[in-house]
Amino acid sequence: xxxxxxxxxxxxxxxxxxxxxxxxxxxxxxxxxHSVQVAMTDAACHFIxxxxxxxxxxxxxxxxxxxxxxxxxxxxxxLSRAAAAIVIAPxxxxxxxxxxxxxxxxxxxxxxxxxxxxxxxxPAMNREMWQNPAxxxxxxxxxxxxxxxxxxxxxxxxxxxxxxxxxxEAAQLAELITAALQPKLLAGKRILITAGPTYEPIDAVRGIxxxxxxxMGYAIAxxxxxxxxxxxxxxxxxxxxxxxxxxxxxxxxxxxxxxAVMQSVADCDIFIAVxxxxxxxxxxxxxxxxxxxxASLTLELVPNPDILAQVASLPNPPFCVGFAAESEKLAEYxxxxxxxxxxxxxVGNLAQQAIGSDDNxxxxxxxxxxxxxxxxxxLTLARQLLEHVAQRYPAAK
Length: 397
What we know:
Elements: E1 8-13, H1 19-31, E2 35-40, H2 50-57, H3 75-81, E3 85-91, H4 93-101, H5 107-113, E4 119-123, H6 127-131, H7 133-144, E5 148-149, E6 153-156, E7 162-166, H8 170-181, E8 190-195, E9 200-201, E10 207-208, H9 215-226, E11 230-235, E12 247-250, H10 254-264, E13 270-273, E14 280-282, E15 301-303, H11 307-312, E16 319-326, H12 330-340, E17 345-350, H13 351-354, E18 359-366, E19 369-377, H14 378-396
Parallel strand pairs: 1-2, 1-3, 3-4, 4-5, 8-11, 8-13, 11-12, 13-16, 16-17
Antiparallel strand pairs: 6-7, 9-10, 14-15, 17-18, 18-19
Helix pairs in contact: 1-2, 1-8, 3-5, 4-7, 9-14
């Protein structure tokens, strides 16, 4: 998976029926290119065998603090020193209590106490155990200690009850873990992003819009949050959910998007204009529905404000990144647009490849030339783009 940060991880598994999900989580992390070392509690071995996890990981599974395979018989020290993070999935109520109170009576709890890397946990337990005040106190303490808590989710549980306490699904956990591993290249930066289409009314029920799904803009917002940025997302109409932690401002028309951007741009460090803003609007939209007839209908269209050009021409503009979706002559037209608007960076792509799809190919244009980003999913491309922005931003300011 191009653009993915490969890391050494420790996957800790504690006792609980959700341990069966850990095998799939391990498989997904390996598929992403991570090296995964598994450590299990004795209770976990009653739910899933070390043999299964060794077969998936290709590495010996540690269950004993005094395992002679570890240098100096110190697995609790050696396993964490090469790890980018320790992930506990599932994390039982008992193990969470140990972590919150600094107890270390087995390999996994000792490993967590002796770590010098981030700790992520995925709670999994009965709903009453999760809601118990003692568990909630322990979770609050772990969050205060800087531990990232992933989940839990609500749903049907193995005991037959329903409620909060289910471990997140493996695919969701893999996504959260990957996000946590992203370098915080934009920590403290304020990024303003536009995304999605705009909608220009013709009458009470009809309008002019385009086929933009908003997926690229939302992927950039998500990647920016992963990298530590404060994100404000000005979005046209789309069914996408805003990335966690991003502040979304909903707009409809290009004029509304312009107003929202100009109200926020003075407080941002970086402006990324991804939205497919309608170039024209109807001069006189009808208040009521225009009734159908056999006669021709002529609409007068007038230009919308060029949001990116307006921001880039401010006396003290933020670092501006534009997007150009072309149907032909991508390099020629994209570079023309970049120079005309005096942008430090412009992202070009072919519209027929990008609109509505989950993946794409991008070309970054700046003063140093063209930088192609090969075909990948849009989140991977967003991460690569923001890495380039992080490199160029200090030099441009």
